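the two lines:
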Amino acid sequence: MNLKLRWIARTAVAAAYVILFGEVFLRLFAPQPILPRYVTAAPWGVRMNTPNSVYRQWTPEVDVQIRINGQGLRADHDFPEAKPPHSCRIALLGDSYFIGFESSLENSFAQRLEDRLRQDGYDAEVLNFAVSGHGTAEMLLTFDGYARKFEPDLVIAQWHRSDFSDNARSGLFQIKEDGELHPLSPTYLPGTRLQAIFLSSAAYRWVAENSQLYNALRDKTARMVKRLLLAIRGRSGSTDPEGESDAPSLLTPQVALSTAIIQELRRHVEAAGHRFMMVEIPQRLNRQTFESGVLPLPAALTRDPAFVSSFIVFNAAAGPDTKLFTEKGNFHLTALGNRLLGDLVAKHVEVEPFAGRCKFHGTRAKR
Amino acid sequence: MLFNSFTFLIFFLCFACVYLATHRWRRAQNFVLIAASYIFYGWWDERFLVLVIVSTVNDFIGGIGASGQRPTRRDGLTAAGVSIPAILALTVPTIEQSWPALVGGLAFFALGPVAVYLIEHFLQGEARRKAYFISSITVNLSILGFFKYANFFAASLTGALRTFGIEAEPIFLNIILPVGISFYTFQTMSYTIDIYRRQMEPTRSFLDFAAYVSFFPQLVAGPIERAGHLLPQFQRPRHLSMDRLSEGAALFLWGLYKKMVIADNLANIADRLFGAASEATTGQAITGIIAFTFQIYCDFSGYSDMARGLARVLGFDLMVNFNLPYFSRTPSEFWRRWHISLSSWLRDYLYVSLGGNRHGRWMTYRNLMLTMLLGGLWHGASWTFVAWGAFHGLILCIYRALDVDEVIGRMDPRRWSGMACHALAWLVMIVLVMFGWTLFRARTFGDAIDVFGAVLSFDRLATDNWSTLAFYIAPLAIVEVAQRIAQRVDISTFGPRLLRFNAALFCIYSLLFVSAPGEREFIYFDF
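prediction for all of em together
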């Protein structure tokens, strides 16, 4: 018994030492970003931000707080479901780019867009429904199940190259032999149950928000699981045998699936009486080179005025000393990147037919 | 299949289970080793296994004949009976792409018995022995020459004719260089040469010999093992133990660290320089050269460490291939420490055969130059490799002419003057080595000249690369300085247990979080 206890104690000490060594190693030699995200299962079948959660994101470049309001939106206050009179409401659907990971609330895309519109004389409020990890399929379910209740005038959905694989991986929709889009699964809630259990522990929350080793290992594991899921659910649609690339070639089933989901999302938005816009964020290859993720999509879709790509604006702004994406975290948009995107999208919003309703003259206090 | 790939991990785990299950039956274990080695090699291109089979049969029969014994019908039937079905199985399913391999393999098995018949019926005694030896070497060199140098010589001949005003259309063959051909060809040749020199007896077990030729840990990039050292290990039961497992794992881990963390990360700096040599500043050129100096060392010695580690786990001992080469103070010391299995091969089978240093000063220089030129050409079919070999031959001759080794040997490193002399000799040598690596890495002489031009232009020494170099090279330098002081080459048992444990953790975390993304091939796979 004594020997057994000694063996257990020795193993525990060794395990603790290995973990401590890893933590010190990372802090000294390879600082890793700490980018926790707290999501939970939403009644509409996909993930939503955990309401009222507040957490810190740290990388060697940024140290920001993410505050989720009581409605699961990134904001410092709650919104009434009914739209205030004389104002325009914009709903954002997207993933970690739109939610503004690695950005403070003031520098997030949603806030930059709202600020820009207000500067230009529009009483607009931007509701940020984005959830890290969402693809277009999850955006569709979020709109149907939640965002539409807030009576937005305009729904802006985000597009990124990773959505091809996200849409295949989620398994929410499929294209059947008839060529039509059909629901495949009512839910896609990867890891939410497990996270709910973990999040009930204060010790877990502390580790998740402070341990570089934990975050790095979780990130690696998540990537492996993603690849595995894509291999299982999206292999037939992928041209990449390893399932590692997010960029499919032209006209693969993955492209067809994403195209159909985008069209379906647009149909739903317009059927509910709202305007629709899709905004592309290009893929960063290096500081000065970006790759557009719209090429595989049909031209009829991407040439539509409702489709806004930031590729040209980003390319024009790029330079050796200009950082549009973070470089030591998960390559999200910097304050400058969000501002450029906000200005670009604001220009398109201002010519929307509904914009005249919320145009004011003189200045109004910021909400 | 790369050692640094997930595929290899799965392969090795499966193989290890079967290998352990057969550890009581040596012959069965050798058969498992051959099967695993063929899967490992065939993962690149199964057609080239035909070459491995041909090499094996050629030297198996050639070795018996070169010893003065007669290959029996049983020897021939055993070799052919196993090899021909194997060739058919490898090529017939993909006959459209594999027909040249099938035709080549079958031609060898058609002509081989004819050659044996002619030798046996028309030659006797020493002449017969010699004929077997020459036939075997001819087959080996023909394979190597055809696959590695045919296009190079065709292009060089066309270029030479053009300088004399003769226009000729070069004939280029669509030849893919089989991975590791230079390594296993030299290994099998050493077997036959050693037998011909009566330094060892031939084996009559085709199974043992085939396992020796194809042993997967060192098949594609060495060490080039001598039969006298490795073959007997296939002829006796292997000893597997926890000590061997931990030592082998430590060696493998250190090799993997050198490859994936140091070599692959430094490759980015070197690739940037040699990809756009004409645009480089002085800082970029110097750091690029230093980066390649350590990249090639860590890439190649890392592979050797991994090979030795795997072999040790399996109960085999492979020779040490690198002995802290960058501490060398003279070219001859460098070649006693760098790629030892090749340099000793060239010394024993080429330099000594040419006469070595037995026929006066000038013949020694000639032999050194010829050996190093061929050593350069062994690395690849390009004039830059030949120039690299010539450069090393030249500095070997100059150092020998000036008796530098002897002068340095007389200096006592415990005295200040001696220490300064050794330090200066080291500094000069490392600069010469780096000069050589620039020739080696450059795609053309023009690129090499551009790099040297950038170094000498003294245009901006500052670059971010310096800190990157320091970050990746410092751990290696610390370990190797400690090894040098302790005079211990074997890293697997170096230092106290606690230190080794921490070093292993350092390597594992580095591999997880600091290694370069992707699977980058080993530089020496191309040679």
